Amino acid sequence: MSSEKSAQTVPCAYKTGRTLGQGTYAVVKEAVHIKTGKYYACKVISKKLMEGREHMVRNEISALKRVSQGHGSIVTLVDYFETMNNLYLVTDLCVGGELFDRICERGSYYEQDAAHIVQTVVKAVKYLHDQGIVHRDLKPENLLFRDKTEESDLLIADFGLSRVVDDDTLSVLSTTCGTPGYMAPEIFKKSGHGKPVDMWAIGVISYFLLAGYTPFDRDSTAQEMQAIVNGDYAFEPEVYWQGVSPSARDFINKLLTVDPSKRMTASEALEHQWLSTDAAKQEGEQKDLLPGIRSAFNAKMTFRKAVHGIRLINRLRTESSEQVPRHEVEALRKGIAEAEAENVQEVLDVDLPDASGHQDKDKKEEKEGGGAKKEEGDEKMQEGSS
């Protein structure tokens, strides 16, 4: 023991401030470097909560160290250190907001805008893959703008599930991880996965950026998983796809390919017609996609909130020793209706995909009493083993 170096106390170089976000194992806070006064994002990871999953933090640090400052569209790891209770990862502070929020704030949004966004993401992912990094959790929430200016860089963030892989191990990652709606079939099948899972996620993101909803959205996570494994999706309802070009649909089809060996790589995606200069613009008159995207997104969210309220009522009835008074039930229903008054009509009017992923025009009138949509289900499925 006498030969071991004694622990040294190092003064902290940062002061943390407001909370920017919170997850299962960590909280992200705004931090200022005491000497320079520069602001960063600081991910504070609880050692106690992460016990047994320390490899996830090591993977994130390894990935970020390898790619930091190497590409303008990837968040930079500025510093990392630890205390007795926590691990700290200091990265760029992205104050420009999430991708989808910025889109919704625009006055208009066209297919060529979506193509430009996807091109930016694919270029960054190609760089990651060239450096031997698989992100494994690509989704709109992890695409952040550096600042609020119109010319701001779009950055890929959150490398908590990323892995550094060698060429020989590209197909042997086997842990189930990611966000369900964006996970590739091979992850659910546990057949081994690698870089192609990121390209599948880009296919889902592209679909979402053009329509406002994801291709495999179903009544439950189990049904969603089955649809993903089967590659069961369609460009429906047609009302949301009328202004979308054939090349955009072809781009998505070539990414949402169940067989990872036949899926486009990042290099191949960059050569696709849809991402070539002005391809989307050349295929016909441009339609503003923003109204349809807002309508579809709001309709989905409204339906889920309403179903969440009904499930809450049922849970109260089940768990309470006394039946919930009818007037309380009616009050809750009324509150849901009033809070979402403008959007509820969209749920009733728009023929959204059913559990099979297709429109059921014959049953449009039954939707008021139809099946329940799942609650918000974008929580990460964290790694169970390395």
From TrEMBL:
Transmembrane segments: none annotated. CDD domains: STKc_CAMK. ATP binds at residue 43. The keyword Transmembrane helix does not apply. Keywords: ATP-binding, Kinase, Nucleotide-binding, Serine/threonine-protein kinase, Transferase. Residues 357-386 have a biased composition (Basic and acidic residues). InterPro entries: Kinase-like_dom_sf (IPR011009), Prot_kinase_dom (IPR000719), Protein_kinase_ATP_BS (IPR017441), Ser/Thr_kinase_AS (IPR008271). It holds the Pfam family Pkinase. One of its GO terms (molecular function) is ATP binding. PROSITE patterns: PROTEIN_KINASE_ATP, PROTEIN_KINASE_DOM, PROTEIN_KINASE_ST. Residues 14-275 form the Protein kinase domain. Residues 344-386 are annotated as: Disordered. PANTHER family: SERINE/THREONINE-PROTEIN KINASE. Belongs to the protein kinase superfamily. This is Putative calmodulin-dependent protein kinase type 1.
